[in-house]
């Protein structure tokens, strides 16, 4: 699927887009707009993403699986339906306990 832009409508079933690698992270940008980007992330079980920050605000919406998000030192249990807002520059890390899929929305701070 090609990345869509805001001049087009996009309707998709997120679960149909989920693909897991044997190890590590698979990601696919679904939509890019001037001030916002929507990316599907699929992490294989036992995958870790080391602590990092982003210059943009971020929202994580869990689609399936289980894991732990450490956000500014606080552990947050991840499972289907969990929604997390992370302000720009907040330190965060992630561990997928099982295969874990989520939609990451990045948006400008202003």
Helix proportion range: under 10%
Number of strands: 10
Kindly give the count of domains: 1
Kindly report the average pLDDT value. 93
In short:
The chain is mostly beta strands. 4% of the residues lie in helices and 54% in strands.
Can you give keywords for this protein?
mainly beta, Jelly Rolls, 110 residues, 4% helix
Q: How does this structure look, described?
A:
The chain is mainly beta and 110 residues long. It has a single domain, classed as Jelly Rolls, CATH 2.60.120.10. The chain is 4% helix and 54% strand. It has one helix and ten strands; from the N terminus they run βαβββββββββ. It has one helix at residues 14-17; strands at 4-5, 25-33, 36-43, 48-52, 57-64, 67-71, 74-78, 83-86, 92-96, 100-107. The strands form two sheets. The chain has a six-stranded mixed β-sheet with strand order 1-2-3-10-5-8. The longest helix is centred in the first third of the chain and has 4 residues, at 14-17. It is globular, with a radius of gyration of 14 Å. The mean pLDDT is 93.
Topology diagram in text:
Blueprint: E1 4-5, H1 14-17, E2 25-33, E3 36-43, E4 48-52, E5 57-64, E6 67-71, E7 74-78, E8 83-86, E9 92-96, E10 100-107
Parallel strand pairs: 1-2
Antiparallel strand pairs: 2-3, 3-10, 4-9, 5-8, 5-10, 6-7, 6-9
